[in-house]
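During the no-cost extension, the postdoctoral fellow (Dr. R.K.) reprocessed legacy sequence entries with the updated structure-token encoder. One reprocessed record is reproduced below for audit purposes.
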Amino acid sequence: MNRREKLLDDIIQGIADPYGNTCAENCFRLLYRLPTSLQIRLAYFMMEHYLPIFERKYHNITVPRQILSDISQYAEVNLIPVKGNYVASIVQ
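Re-encoded structure tokens follow.
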């Protein structure tokens, strides 16, 4: 079993953690050192994939939907300065 497979197995086991700590730590370790563009695309994909589940449980939290609806604006306001529409160009 290679290192990434082990981390994926750890993530699957960590999902049962009621506070999500184990899963978050393993996701960070899995994504670490990947190119920034790939990290953003993976995060966007996962967020888009799981958003309906999240919204059913936490219908009053709207930030994830706002991020997905205009990721460039969110990046401009909340992330490090980027030139042009760098973030939007990655996920579209």
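The chain has a mean pLDDT of 74. Residues 1-33 form one domain. The remaining legacy entries will be reprocessed before the final report is submitted.
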